[in-house]
């Protein structure tokens, strides 16, 4: 047999996603490239690794056993790489962070300097809604989580990194009150939706719920198209506000102010990589906030 590590990685991603298309997206490869490498890997075995029924791909029992062996091989490769870097005095290993969807506008800037310094670290960022982020944290599947609203049900430790401001946003200025505007909501489980609903309840507002969308980007595009208004974090609409595609509508009680915090389970024993990142963040967070996000102070 003459399989490559690249073929093993592609096969494992197909096993994980049960989709050539999704595997290609997550590996940042074209679909034909993944299909070709999957076929080349399959051709080295007399027994099928996968089978397609309708439009769905299934992993055969033999394929599952090969996947288990492939995982062991890839783990061994990572271990060798980490040992090599450690022998050279370089920090190595994985850093796993779960990030709420709006946090994608924040987290990369607080990682950039650290990752440039420690090139042997493998970074894994999962961007999803708040409920899924907290679930990952509770299951101890990640080192850290970035949230703008702290969870109440679990014991955590945290480091605050940036102020989060949420405003009423529309594609044009209006003198109508928020109660007279059709509002667009994020999906249930979203931190932005939670902040929005708390504001509505606190002020005893009767509002028009126009629609519900699953991402901030979808909400943003819906507002630009004129489908409604929403309460959104300024951090994700900087360019649209500057370009006058979106407008902040002055509203009593707004902006809502929360804090972006990196959190972890209380008492968690951090890996050397996670410890090093916490040290970096404590030292550099104020400078990053000043350099990258000072523009938001005007709002």
How would you describe this protein?
The structure is a single chain. By secondary structure, this protein is an alpha/beta fold. It has 3 domains: 5-87, Winged helix-like DNA-binding domain superfamily/Winged helix DNA-binding domain (Arc Repressor Mutant, subunit A, Orthogonal Bundle), CATH 1.10.10.10; 93-162 and 259-298, D-Maltodextrin-Binding Protein, domain 2, CATH 3.40.190; 164-257, Periplasmic binding protein-like II (D-Maltodextrin-Binding Protein, domain 2, 3-Layer(aba) Sandwich). 41% of the residues lie in helices and 23% in strands. The chain contains 10 helices and 11 strands. The chain has helices at 5-17, 20-27, 31-42, 61-87, 112-117, 130-138, 191-202, 216-224, 238-242, 272-293, and strands spanning 50-53, 56-59, 93-100, 121-128, 144-147, 156-170, 182-186, 208-213, 230-233, 247-248, 256-265. Strands 3, 4, 5, 6, 9, 10 and 11 form a 7-stranded mixed β-sheet that branches. Strands 1-2 form a two-stranded antiparallel sheet. The protein is globular, with a radius of gyration of 23 Å. The mean pLDDT is 91.
Please supply descriptive tags for the structure shown above.
seven-stranded mixed β-sheet; two-stranded antiparallel sheet; 3 domains; 299 residues; single chain; D-Maltodextrin-Binding Protein, domain 2; alpha/beta; Arc Repressor Mutant, subunit A
